[in-house]
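[job 4471] stage=fold_predict status=RUNNING
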Amino acid sequence: MNFFSLHQGTGTPVVGNDATSATACPYDDVITCDATYKYRSFDGSCNNLNNPFFGRKDTPFERLLTPEYEDGIEDIRVTPHKSSDTLIGPRQLSTEYHQASAAANLQLPVEAHCNVVIMTGTLDTTTVGCAPIPVPVTDPFFGSFGRLCLNFARALPDTDILCDDTYRQQRNRVTHFLDASTVYGSDKATADSLRTFSDGDGRVNQNPMLVSMHTIFLREHNRVARELKSLNPSWTTKGLYQESRRIVIAEYQHIVYGEYLSALLSIPVAALLGLLPKFFGYYNNYDPEVNPAVRNEFVAAAYRSGHSTIDSTISPGELLKNHFFEPSTIYDASKGIDFLVSNLVQNQQQTMDRLKTDQVTNHLFQFSDGDGGDLAATNIQRGRDHGLPSYNDMRELCGLPRATSFNAGPGGLEHHTADSANRLNSLYTDPDDIEAWTGMSSEMRITGGVFGPTAACITALQFDYLKRGDRFYYENDLPGTKFTTAQLKQLRRASLARLICDNTGINSIQKFVFWDTFPGRVPGGWNDLVPVKECLEVN
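[job 4471] inference complete, writing structure tokens
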């Protein structure tokens, strides 16, 4: 891969021509910031003192590349690049390429990753305007139910944060930062109203595994608050809350950069790009010129590549389709949070490839068979809604060669299997038409990681922006906001295993929960289960 030099860029947003908006720019409003305030705002404003809107909620996603709309402005693309035909429909592409994976479609033992997910809160859009996904009458699943379309609404349109472009952007309704806003919310009103089954991310109840992970972080906040109260009995409730929040955000960032990215990108790639936390000392690369905003190419394509790894069950015999929007599962005496988390950390992911479980391609958020959605088709349509450039364009951005043919190997789809390449050839007229998400989610993964090279590149760029552009990043050496070296030493002991040990009743866990541990699967026993008491504690 040749994308390693890209992470040194400033992340300046791509804009269109020099024409300015005919209406007042909503991001020209004056925000007064207190440079001495120790804590993050809930909505992300004033993180950047020079550009208070950078990373704030209700601001647009940024771009790495100029978008591709049918009319060059906002219409969903329906025409191939080099043909007058019509692009294949999202549902047809889903059924003919992203077919159902088998239960045994697991990762190879030597590099197995478990099912644990981490919440980044990088996408929350209000949708407006219908753009339904057509369902062919011959559809192998929905056809028998007479379904002619799947629900789809376009993302809320926005301007660029500079208000000087002429094409459609999309708005992020949560903060762009890795600030645990999935736990605390992205505004004060949400933060003040949090209760059970209502946390900072409105999607928390989508499935019980997500509820479980959110609950663990909420419990961690309360655990830290109790510890701080015992050490500082004179602190106010507000002071305890803010300091606990500050610590939990730091733990969260340490887990994301220290463990999660190592699993997604592989340890060598994460280290080479400077994404891993430091072993000691401070991080000195904060750059106020970097806009940390989430990039469209990441949120609407690269990061969604992980949908390929979704398993069909939440536990042996328990199909995922039966547990959408059923958070009450965690109260089941035999299937509570401890049970769910144990399954998450001990069960392997599905393999990163073109195949997706039918639990999300035929049964997504269903109430009964036939009325659900298709996550693969939704991802394809969302990419077109956001005007994402092609898979080939993403590869070129990353310094990877464009595919000029549908052959597998050099000159063609060199990071795809021959089977995948042949199938793409039967569905597209030119390699330049391959959707960014379809191409990335079916790449062969890089050694030691989950993602293929193109998704890994886009993901690395995004997390670099989120790190260098965050004034409150926990390792920063900035007056007024930094942790002491003693505090950093403790925070660097944080791990997802430790949080699970502290906030559930499980008896044992592997040290690195993003990697598998089943006996015989991982050679050498380097990640064997250990008693909870052996988890390092953060003091």
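[job 4471] summary: The mean pLDDT is 87.
[job 4471] exit 0
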